Amino acid sequence: MATITSTMAGNLWKVLKNVGDTVEAGEEVAILESMKMEIPIEAESAGVVKQVQKNEGEFVNEGDVLFEIE
Amino acid sequence: MFKKVLIANRGEIACRIIRTCKEMGIITVAVYSDADATSLHVKIADEAYHIGGSAAKDSYLNDQKIIEVAKESGAEAIHPGYGFLSENAEFSRLCKENDLVFVGPRPETIEAMGDKISAREKMEAAGVPVLPGNHSVASADEAVEIAATIGYPLMVKAAAGGGGIGMELVTNDDQLRKAYSSNQRRAKNYFGSGNLYLEKALLNPRHIEIQVIADSFGDAIHLGERDCSIQRRHQKVIEEAPAPALGDDVREAMRQAALKAVTSLQYVNAGTLEFLYEEGQFYFLEMNTRLQVEHPVTEAITGVDLVKEQLTVASGKRLSVRQEEVTFTGHSIECRVYAEDPVTFFPSPGTLSNVLFPRDVRVDHSIETGTEVTPFYDPMIAKVIVHDLDRQKAIEKMKQTLLNTSIEGIKTNIPFLRRVLDQPDFINENMNTNFVQKHKETILQ
Question: ipTM of the assembly?
């Protein structure tokens, strides 16, 4: 089981993947809004989304797990 | 003059406004969000009121709450600073309805200039040069049709836009279609209106703007120009006054065009006419109906305190300076210090350590060791302003100042600023708004 974590603190603006979706390495999986800027969050490795840990609109800290993938 | 003023803002600009208020003997009221409870502007104000949650919409954009606090505190006027409610006509109206003075222009003026399409029309009618363009486009298909008549390159822009958000340069139909849909979404998200328009794009323009201020007696003055060509992500990073490498005839023509605009709008309070300049020609870009981030460079070379004049005019008095009394001395440069990666420009929130600024120059900021830079607001954390006899000396002073500035604990753009100041094209007054892109190999290393 691998995880995709937030690269910085901010508001989780868009969650682009749901449970069961496949992700490619380097693919955008979520968009964070921090300091008035949209920050894309990318998957480091490929896999299938097992769990989405955060909801759109939620505040996330740096290092928070956003997705669990397999 | 007012006895008590509420500052509906945060960060460096709140601190800067409080400073002038104190000099004028005005009691200051700060407002703050959860995230800003221990901020400098809260500490230095005479009174401070908590107005809500950390997200801007829950606090600094909460117009009702701010009005409520203003009345409770007994403030007579509200200074909105820049950003947040500063260009919100509804808020300015709400102030009036509650017998509070909004330190800024009339709501009708804010409205007319806030919609970029209506602003273009008004300026064109007043005889201010505008870029060829179309007043609005209803669909991507229509945009492509219109593009054929104006010709590429084009700028896609949000009618309600600002701060570089919702605008994009396009050079063909494909790009235009993509830019249309992405910017419509973004504009709707940020400004509540997805209205877009097209404007002919200049390839290597400079950004030059004129500072104006007018009183309610119909007297208006300009305070010269600023060059703000050094930008990243369509946002200014380094500004200077006066604008270098500009012929006196063009300089004067821009100043007169700005005054023409002010007269035609029956403008009151401080404002800035932004122009794009290329090959001897200038074109109206937009008017900012508020105090600008970069106003200190104008203050440096004119000796005029813009916040003081704003408060004077807002209290119903005449401007304390006449046009013939405005003089321009030396050269001033401002560097905006952002909490961001100096290469990718991605924000870098966090806790600051070892914050140290040189004492012999003006630094407008609201940070100290231990300050937490939160992800909720703009990444600008300080403005370093130098003033010297000429441009070359000012550049040298800025380089020295940045060298002696310390901000640790997060990433800042100070390395980026220093690389820009070292560029021969910057030193030789050869800048335009594509400067960073053009020199990315050396600046973004």
Answer: 0.83
pTM of the complete model beyond 0.90: yes
Catalytic residues of B: 290
Task: Give tens-digit pLDDT for B299-331.
Answer: 999 999 999 999 999 999 999 999 999 999 999
Mean pLDDT, residues B296-300: 98
A9 touches chain B (CB under 8 A): yes
3-state class (DSSP) for residue A52? strand
Between B346, B349, B378, which is nearest A9 by CB?
B349
Alpha helices for B98-139 (secondary structure H): 107-114, 116-125
Answer CATH for B4-103 from 2.60.120.10, 3.30.70.100, 3.40.50.20, 3.20.20.105: 3.40.50.20
What distance in Å separates the CA atoms of residue B224 and residue B88, rounded to the nearest whole number?
26
Q: Is B340 on the interface with A (CB under 8 A)?
A: yes
Can you name the CATH fold of B132-200?
Dna Ligase; domain 1 (3.30.1490)
DSSP state of B411: -
B302, B360, B303, B354: which is closest to B328 by C-alpha? B302
> Distance (Å) from the C-alpha of residue B161 to the closest C-alpha of chain A?
14
Shortest alpha-carbon distance between residue B251 and chain A (Å): 34
Chain B touched by A10 (CB under 8 Å): yes
Mean pLDDT of B10-16: 98
Tell me: the pLDDT tens digits for B154-183? 999 998 877 677 889 999 999 999 999 999
CA A36 – CA B395 distance, rounded (Å): 30
